[in-house]
Design brief:
Helix content: 25-40%
Oligomer: single chain
Number of domains: 2
Distance between the termini: 22 Å
Strand order of the largest sheet: 7-6-16-17-18-15-19
Structural class: alpha/beta
Shape: globular
CATH superfamily of the largest domain: FAD/NAD(P)-binding domain
Largest sheet: 7 strands, mixed
CATH architecture of the largest domain: 3-Layer(bba) Sandwich
Radius of gyration: 23 Å
Number of strands: 20
CATH class of the largest domain: Alpha Beta
Bound molecules: flavin-adenine dinucleotide
């Protein structure tokens, strides 16, 4: 407890009131899906656990009215949503997706390309799928001698991508990382695909038919219900963690901006990329610091276009579309039929997205609407409302969710693997090996870190402890 008092007096010396001192076996930093899943499993295993979050709300991520998933490929989300009794609604999976300049997709969901471009698309897609499956997540740098600093654009060109297939590859990286294909290392992309089930799985997640279930209230609702299953008082909101100190007595002291101090035996950083502003002592490994500092930040914003009627369905379309020549990378049908609410959400990403965001409001809206018409290749009704879904975004959850690690830093990742640092453990998007970048992957990482911590908390065999 001396360490807690030391930290408290440091805060008082800085003129900040030290208000609360609480302790638990485990403190989880981040009340997103990975942190709450970890806390839930820890408490079920009998450990005492508190969850701290910087915001005044539970749920991590950006606010979304609803989220979409496929019950087969997202079994953890499905199990949790049904287990918690949350409202889920089967989405219409009728209608075809659209790709800008190519019109409605084929029956198998692939873009409607002419013969030459189609051959190129199939070759690039299948070769990249094969390469992504060959990446060993425990040795992500193994293919550096072959691919070195090659970008996704260069990799696609080396596999015979025609100009239109190059644009499709650009749409993939914009959607995943908010970065153009010339700004993403080929190996980082392949590694991401491996951790998300392969390129084919990544592409199928982008299609409408894979978004078959709508979770009302989105991830936030899922997280709120998960938090309600924790012991009362387990979640402390509006706690911006500033420092994590590991003391010589194997205690961890977590200090927040408000001067509150929490003591534990193990701490979990759930969403490490989001927690870059936290000072950790002793310092995080050089490898982790390099990973956090080197990643180029992506750009991604969501704009909802609200309509009186789902005009796209009347045209036999699903509403899901891919943009190739402009700032919109993906469009999704985010309607709530049950309420008679019809909307398309446009994901604006990459360099052209950044440029669009520098324009004045009117010019931005007009250029967005022009791009929507270009994508659907036809006149489109004027939306009755245009909503910037990220207008209140804060710095605590960057969008997009995943870091694009430069090729030069894959050796840092290979050495480090986000392994625990003393009593500090890691969970979240960077640490998930299934459906990375989706809630499914983050729940898996939360379960895994809980197991690691439970193992680390186990009582030491007597013989061993007497030898120490
Ligand atoms: C625009 C967008 C749409 C998405 N749509 C979907 C979808 O439809 N389906 C799907 O499966 N996935 C979707 N995702 C992905 C999903 O939201 C993320 O993968 C998931 O939220 C990440 O969970 P996490 O627990 O790792 O981190 P987060 O959810 O980001 O949680 C991290 C938490 O840490 C907190 N924090 C940060 N810094 C501090 C600090 N200093 N002190 C205390 N707390 C701190 C933050 O406030 C946050 O609550 C979407 C992501 C984005 C960006």
């Amino acid at each position: 407890m001396a360490a807690v008092q030391d930290m408290a007096s440091t805060y008082q010396a800085r003129g900040l009131p030290s208000r609360h001192k609480r302790s638990a076996q485990v403190i989880v930093i981040g009340a997103g899906p990975s942190g709450l899943q970890a806390a839930y499993n820890l408490q079920r295993a009998g450990a005492t656990c508190l969850v701290l979050d910087a915001r005044d709300r539970i749920g991590g991520g950006p606010v979304a009215a609803d989220d979409y998933f496929n019950a087969t490929s997202h079994p953890r989300v499905a199990e949790l949503a049904w287990g918690l009794g949350l409202a889920v609604e089967q989405q219409s999976d009728e209608g075809k997706d659209v790709v800008e300049g190519l019109g409605a997709s084929r029956a198998d969901g692939t873009p409607n390309l002419s013969e030459d471009h189609r051959r190129s698309f199939i070759r690039v897609r299948d070769n990249l799928e094969g390469l992504s499956q060959r990446v060993d997540v425990s040795r992500p740098a193994q293919q550096l001698p072959n691919y070195g600093a090659m970008t996704v654009h260069e990799l696609a060109v080396s596999q015979g991508a025609t100009p239109i297939v190059q644009k499709l590859a650009n749409a993939w990286t914009s959607t995943l990382f908010g970065l153009d294909s010339k700004d993403v290392s080929a190996l980082c992309f392949l590694l991401h695909c491996k951790c998300a089930g392969g390129l084919l799985q990544v592409l199928s997640e982008m299609r409408s038919s894979e978004q078959s279930v709508r979770l009302q209230g989105g991830v936030e609702k899922l997280c709120e219900e998960l938090a309600a299953r924790l012991q009362p008082g387990s979640v402390c909101l509006s706690q911006v963690v500033e420092r994590i100190d590991q003391t010589p007595g194997n205690k961890v002291v977590v200090t927040t901006q408000s001067g509150d101090v929490f003591q534990c035996t193990k701490a979990i950083l759930a969403g490490p990329a989001q927690c870059t502003a936290i000072e950790v002592a002793p310092e995080l490994s050089e490898d982790k610091q390099c990973l956090l500092e080197s990643a180029k930040p992506g750009f991604s914003k969501r704009i909802a276009l609200v309509y009186d009627a789902p005009w796209w369905r009347e045209r036999g379309l699903s509403g899901c579309a891919q943009g190739l020549d402009g700032s919109i990378s993906v469009v999704k049908d985010t309607s709530r039929d049950i309420d008679g609410f019809y909307s398309l959400t446009c994901f604006v990403a990459g360099e052209s997205g950044t440029e669009l965001w520098q324009k004045m409001d009117d010019e931005r809206q007009q250029s967005l609407l022009n791009h929507v018409e270009a994508i659907y290749g036809d006149t489109v009704p004027t939306p009755c409302e245009i909503v910037d879904l990220d207008q209140h975004a804060d710095t605590f959850s960057p969008a997009p969710a995943c870091l694009a690690v430069p090729a030069a830093n894959l050796r840092n990742l290979e050495r480090d693997q986000w392994q625990p640092e003393g009593s500090v453990f890691f969970a979240g998007a960077e640490v998930s090996y299934v459906l990375r970048g989706h809630v499914e992957g983050e729940l898996a990482s939360g379960r895994r870190v809980a197991e690691e911590v439970i193992y680390a908390l186990r009582p030491m065999p007597e013989a061993m402890s007497s030898r120490l």
